[in-house]
Amino acid sequence: xxxxxxxxxxxxxxxxxxxxxxxxxxxxxxxxxxxxxxxxxxxxxxxxxxxxxxxxxxxxxxxxxxxxxxxxxxxxxxxxxxxxxxxxxxxxxxxxxxxxxxxxxxxxxxxxxxxxxxxxxxxxxxxxxxxxxxxxxxxxxxxxxxxxxxxxxxxxxxxxxxxxxxxxxxxxxxxxxxxxxxxxxxxxxxxxxxxxx
Length: 197
Prior knowledge:
Elements: H1 2-23, E1 61-69, E2 82-93, E3 97-98, E4 105-113, E5 119-127, E6 132-141, E7 150-151, E8 165-174, E9 180-189, H2 191-194
Antiparallel strand pairs: 1-2, 2-8, 2-9, 3-8, 4-7, 4-9, 5-6, 5-8
């Protein structure tokens, strides 16, 4: 009886392991460029699907937020004309990116349009079955530093990820009660690149 239970559990675990990565097969984990090099950040970053909002809100989950006109002026992601706009109390959650043992750092461009409160950033980690394994770290962007388009400060992750973490997601929340936050060209730096030199 116990052998049968172990076999069933092993089969279920194998099925989960096979099924979930198939859904995450397109997730990238490799640094592919240096979009913040001109801002004295020599780390390698990767982009992900619709990280510059040129395909509307595809892949993003938005609440009281939308995609409109306006691109960061350095065009680090290539030519574009769109950006994310987050209204007071609004949230935006990115597509999933691979995490595994590479706790990612995130960076983007932001602009505060007459806002009276910060933009908060969290990184949400997910396990094999799509379960949340942790919400780690918290970065707050003060509007005084983003009167015009600026590269954001780094949004780090913890050194120790929860067990069986396979994916991560950026969650942005406006705490303002007036004005809008704009965000464009979101990139991920795998932890490994920060240890590379």
